[in-house]
Input
Amino acid sequence: MKIDKLITEAMDQCKYGQFDQARNICSRALKLAPANVALLNILADIESLQGNPDNAMALYKRSLVIKPKQAITCLKLGTEQRKDGELEAATQSLLAALKIQPSYRANRELGLTYVDAENFREAEAYFRAALSHKPSCWLSVSELGDLLVKRNSLNEAATLIEAYIGIEKSNPHAYAQLTKIHLMNSNPKAALEINAENLRIEPAYTRGFALKYLALSELGDGTGTKYLYDYETLVQRISAKCPPSFHDIKDFNSELANHIINNVQLHSNSKAYTTVKGSHSGFDGLFINNKQLGDAVHNMVQDAVDKYISNLSLASLDSDHPINTSKPSEYRILIWAVVTGRGGHEMPHIHPKSWIGGSFYVELPDDFDTQPTQNAGWIEFGRGEEGLHQLR
Output
C-alpha cells in the first residue's frame, strides 16, 4: 500500500513539472520494491522529458525484462530509439507494441521510423493504419500528406487534408498545409481562399500571413503584398546594447561564443530544426549552467524588442494591420543558438506562433570577407519555402 501511495505522489509531482522531487520519490520507493515496473517507467519518462535518452532507454528496457508484455513501454522505448537514430531497434520495439496492443500511436511511430529510414512505402502503410485507428491524428495526416506531395500526388494530398478538416475544423496547421499544396499546384486563388478561412479561425497565425503574402504575390497583387509586408517598416536593424557586466560588445560576444561551443549540448540532423550543415541548441537548456550569462542575453534581447515596439508605434501603419491586430498583450522571449559549418545555412521557414523574431550574430568565420559569393551569410526575408513552385 505504501508503494502505491509513493507512485501516486511521484505521478502528481510529474504532473506539475517537479521532476527532481518525483525522481527522488521513485528512487526511494525502488529500494523498497526494486522490481516495480510502474516506478521504473515513471523514472524513464522523467529522463525522456529532461532530454536524457540513454537513461530513459535503459530504464524502459529494465522494466520490459521484468514484465515483457507492456505495450506502452515498448512504444516509448521505440520512440526513444527512433529519436536516437537506432532505427532497426526502434522498429522491433514498435512491432512488439503493436503485437501486444494495436494502436494509432504505435502505427504512427512506425511510420515515422520508416520515414527516417527513407522506406516511404512502408511509412505510408503505417500512417494509413494509424488513421484507420484515429482519423483525427494530425501528425499522421501531416506526414502522409508530405509523402504524397513527395511523389507529386498533390490532389490526393489535398483530398486527405480536406477530409481531416471535415473532422477537425480548428487546426490552423491543416489549413496551412492545404494552402501550400494549392500553391504547389499553381492555384494561388484557391490557396488564398483556404488561407482566409485559416486566419478567420486563428487571426494571429503568423504562417497564415506568410502564405497570404505568397498567394498575393503569385496573383500579382503588388498593392496587397506591399501593405501586408512593408519591408521598410517591419524589418528593422537594431544595435545590441552591451550588457553592463561586460567591458564591451566584443568581450560579451567572445564569452557567449565560448559558452555556446563548449558548454551547450548541440543537436544536428533533427527534423525539428531548419538548420542545414549545422547544429542547434534547442529551445531550452541554452543557459542552464550559466544563469548570469543567460540573464545578460535575455536583457539584451528585451531591450531590442522594446526598441522595435517603440519604432513600430511611430510608424504610419493603420490599426488594422496584422502586426497591430496580432500583437500579444503578454509575451515571453525564447532564445536558442545555431552553429553552422562551411556551407551551413537555415532553410526558409516561419515561426508560426511568434509575433516577431530576430537574429543576433555572435561570431562570423575568419574568412568571411573572402567567401566565393558576395552574399554569403546574408539573411533574406520574403522568399517562400522550397517546393512551392513560385513563379514570382
